[in-house]
Amino acid sequence: MDIIRSVTEMRKRVVSAQAAGQTISFVPTMGFLHQGHLSLLEEGRRRGDLLVLSIFINPTQFGPGEDLDDYPRDLEQDSQLAQQAGVDIIFVPEAKAMYPPGYATYVDVEGISETLCGTSRPGHFRGVCTIVSKLFNIIQPQVAIFGNKDFQQLAVIKRMTLDMNLPVEILGLPIFREADGLAMSSRNVYLSPDQRRQALVLSQSLATAKELVAAGELDCATIIVQLKKYIDQQPDVRIDYVQICHQLTLEDQNRVDADSVLLLAVFIGKTRLIDNSFLVIKND
Ligand code: PAF
Question: Which residue, judged by its Cα, is nearest atom 1 of ligand 1?
Fold first, then answer.
């Protein structure tokens, strides 16, 4: 496994892989890898001859006062995990290589970027789309793999890929959860033991909503009111949003149907966590 820091070197490796007829699979991350990332790498290993993992804490997707400086980092541990997962190349560019002086070009996806996390984190998806399209240009993968935990991110990236005719398949994989239901996230490390316990409101709210739907409650407003009441009982939890949206457009829905996704974002102390689930259990 190679660790490549330079864009020029990464491009050379891409050109020689292409010349050798190899397919490239790509898992973009900000590092501090957990089991969820490893599941993406496992699929990446199956899907390409050359598996590239990028680790880049992308400054343009963090707003003022967010956790850019504190974001957890451990390249040594990430390298060991990546090696075990069969990664061929870890691409770890420096911020000044990705955004050199004079940098002025950004990718903005309208509409679906503006709701949910886009409302509470203005500019976030502009940063995500900019870095992801730059990484796609450098790495030129046939397939790129993301986690479904960032449901809106995945929808926005799919939209961007379609709109910009990018020749890459975007794959979303199921959320990886701890044994007690908490969705895996690099940010879980910020939680104190008590906050970690309170964080279970996320997965518990998803379960409650699914139970309500299974019992015949299809009115979105009613479900949301009940969930908010439940979440508000946790002393350190502040709701950012609780919304039921159409899976493709991310527009709010009035009644639950097979396309309904419940999306949650809460602050637990200073830590912002998200989670989501479809609401109708599919039998197929
Ligand atoms: O999901 C993430 O880790 C990041 O948003 C991504 C896709 C790597 C872009 O920086």
Answer: 29
Return the residue whose CA atom lies nearest to atom 3 of ligand 1. Answer: 29
Buried b (16+ CB within 10 A) or exposed e, 37-52: bbbbbbbbeebbebbb
Tell me which CATH code domain 2-173 carries: 3.40.50.620
Domain 191-278, architecture per CATH = 2-Layer Sandwich (3.30)
Domain ranges of the chain: 2-173, 191-278
Could you confirm whether 34 is annotated as catalytic? no
Which ranges in 173-219 belong to alpha helices (H)? 193-198, 200-214
Q: What is the pTM of this model?
A: 0.97
Kindly list the distances between the CA atom of residue 46 and the CA atoms of 50, 85, 87, in Å, as whole numbers in the listed order. 10, 11, 11
Residue nearest to ligand 1 atom 4, measured at CA: 29
Ligand 1 pocket member 78 (CB < 6 A): no
Neighbours of 100 (CB within 10 A): 9
Shortest-distance atom of ligand 1 to CA 29: 8
Q: What is the pLDDT of residues 156-182, one digit of tens each?
A: 999 999 999 999 999 999 999 999 999
**Host H or E run for residue 132:** helix 124-139
